[in-house]
Automatic annotation (TrEMBL):
Its cofactor is FAD. This is Flavin-dependent monooxygenase. The keyword Flavoprotein applies. It comes from Streptomyces griseochromogenes. The lineage of its organism: Bacteria, Bacillati, Actinomycetota, Actinomycetes, Kitasatosporales. InterPro entries: FAD-bd, FAD/NAD-bd_sf, TetX_monooxygenase. Keywords: Cytoplasm, FAD, Flavoprotein, Monooxygenase, NADP, Nucleotide-binding, Oxidoreductase.
């Protein structure tokens, strides 16, 4: 019986690892040509009950703790005029509730824990029928169970549901300041060791220190159209001019915030934020299932990677418990996954609503400090 996983993201790799730990082989087909072919983005915080639970089931919790950053849990929340609303600094002996980790380090940890040929790079999934997978390069492979772990724009999803991801109204520009301690020590002190959020009316700036000394900056524009990047006047092909335009879009904000934009290097990446309907389900179908963003794409407010990892781990455990009955394993997995990820999706949607609303900073403060 062949278990075939499409997508070597966090969810697909967690599944492959838990299967491996339980003595079950699986093959992962990934469209990227190698592990380093594409940047993996910034930091993730792994929650003790979900993402870290998955790492425990994968037998990798000690290795995870070795690369996790406790101080990454620090948080500063500000208003556009510079008012500091909340500052939480993590004590050195604080529990590792939500430590941060570089996404690339986490992915490398999972990749290194698998047998050498477990991931077949350069295989872009095209279609599947009657136990045969087709790839874009004309090659093919067989499967008894096909798991779609192919992310936000999943192609495998179409085998189970007609649901499509839709634009949330949020458009994000990602920038970054390399080696900030050396190049801009004043800005480094301002951002601190973890997450730095400035929430305005329909716009936000968040900065996040990464393990390699880079600070990633995300500029969000809420309630904007799907084609907003085309009409925004941001010249993405000319990074210096793009920074000038972005500073212009933050007119009226405290000059310390626009100084962060001015200090960025030439990485200027547009990211359009889409989601699947909250609570999406499908009738269980023998031979197919989905996990991670392919199953439940939600706003990027801290749950997606945690859910993807736990999906992978729990599907692996279900398959290990029913090695001769994949259909039963998939049903058991999907029942739990639908309930858990619907709750996470509802919570993420609520946070997204706060972020995109007028007076977002005060509402977020109330969210962090209820009562
Ligand atoms: C800006 C931003 C910030 C975020 N921050 C956080 C955070 O702080 N915390 C958090 O928990 N989540 C966060 N998320 C969400 C998180 O990144 C995702 O939920 C998570 O990566 C999903 O994992 P996955 O394995 O399902 O998919 P992915 O990590 O997207 O992996 C999918 C893989 O499938 C491959 N693939 C795609 N199509 C094919 C194909 N046709 N054939 C073969 N391979 C294919 C891709 O190349 C990729 O390697 C953030 C997302 C964004 C956009």
């Amino acid at each position: 019986m062949t278990i075939t996983i499409v997508g070597a993201g966090l969810g697909g790799l967690a599944l492959a690892r838990v299967l491996h730990v339980n003595g079950i082989d699986a093959v992962v087909y990934e469209r990227e040509s190698s592990r380093g072919a594409r940047g993996q983005g910034g930091m993730l915080d792994l929650h003790s009950g979900t993402g870290q639970r998955a790492m425990r089931e994968a037998g990798l919790i000690d290795q995870f703790h070795a690369i996790a950053r406790r101080q990454g849990q620090d948080l500063r929340l500000l208003e556009p005029d510079g008012t500091l609303l909340l500052q939480e600094d993590t004590p050195d002996d604080a529990p590792l509730e939500r430590p941060e980790v570089d996404r690339a380090d986490l992915r490398n940890l999972l990749l290194d824990s698998l047998p050498e040929h477990a991931v077949c790079w350069g295989h872009a999934f095209e279609s599947a029928d009657n136990g045969l997978l087709q790839f874009a390069d004309g090659s093919s492979a067989t499967y008894d169970l096909l798991v779609g772990a192919d992310g936000a724009d999943s192609r495998v999803r179409t085998l189970l549901t007609d649901a499509r991801s839709a634009h949330t109204g949020q458009n994000v520009v990602e920038l970054g300041i390399p080696d900030i301690d050396r190049t801009h020590p004043d800005l480094a002190a301002m951002v601190g060791r973890g997450n730095y959020w400035v929430l305005g009316n329909g716009q936000s700036l968040s900065a996040q220190r990464n393990g390699d000394g880079r600070v990633r900056i995300y500029l969000s524009f809420y309630n904007t159209a799907e084609d907003w990047f085309a009409t925004s006047g941001i010249p993405f092909g000319d990074p210096a001019a793009a920074r000038v335009r972005l500073i212009d879009l933050f007119t009226g904000w405290d000059s310390r915030f626009t100084a962060l934009i001015a200090a960025c290097d030439d990485t200027v990446l547009p990211r359009s934020i889409t989601t699947l309907p909250v609570g999406l389900t499908w009738p269980s179908k023998p031979g197919f299932t989905l996990l991670g963003d392919a199953a439940h794409l939600m706003p990027p407010v801290g749950q997606g990677a945690n859910m993807a990892l736990l999906d992978g781990a729990l599907l692996g455990l279900a398959l290990a418990a029913h090695p001769d009955d994949f259909a039963a394993a998939v049903k058991e997995y999907e029942r739990e996954m639908f309930e858990r990820t619907s709750a996470a999706g509802r919570q993420s949607a609520r946070i997204q609503e706060i972020l995109s609303s007028p007076d977002a900073s005060r509402k977020m403060l109330a969210f962090f400090q209820p009562g």
